[in-house]
Amino acid sequence: MKSLFEQFGGTYRKESDYAVPKLETPDTGSFEIGIYGQQYLYYLQHYHRITYLNLLTSGKLSEYLVEIDSQVQERVLRIVEQMKQAQGITKQLKENNPIKWTGIMNCVKRQAEEIVFDELIYC
Fold first, then answer.
1. Distance separating alpha carbons of residues 89 and 101, to the nearest angstrom
2. Among 6, 16, 31, 57, whose Cα sits 20 to 30 Å from the Cα of 106?
3. Tens digits of residue pLDDT in 56-112
4. In terms of C-beta distances under 8 Å and separation of at least 24 residues, what long-range contacts does 68-72 make, across chains too?
5. What residues pair up with 5 in beta bridges, in sequence order?
């Protein structure tokens, strides 16, 4: 009689006198997870352990993190553009006073990231 593991397509390998299940994770390909995806991974590992384990065991974790990373990047860029227009930040300011422009842009980007983190990552 087959075990439940064998009924679902599992196989065993022989090690000494024991039959050890052959467990392999599905081939997920090569995904490059960005900084936002890594931050979301940390959040899942520490605050949503069940979701993290479900994604990990199903083999969909990397794909999910890449998707979250791209969504956050797109949203941050969109908010930065909106904030630049609202505050009147132009290329002329960049040419005339690059130090001031850099400071303002760093502040705008950080504000956009905080907004998106609250919406997409820490939800």
1. 8
2. 31
3. 988 899 999 999 999 999 999 999 999 999 999 999 999 999 999 999 999 999 999
4. 68/36, 68/37, 68/40, 68/120, 68/121, 69/33, 69/34, 69/35, 69/36, 69/37, 69/40, 70/34, 71/120, 72/36, 72/37, 72/40, 72/116, 72/117, 72/120, 72/121
5. none
Q: What DSSP state is assigned to residue 30?
A: -
Token pair recorded at residue 71 = 């969504």
Could you please report the per-residue DSSP string of 4-25?
A: HHHHTT--EEEETTEEEE----
Closest CA to 28 of 54, 74, 66: 66
Q: What is the pTM of this model?
A: 0.72
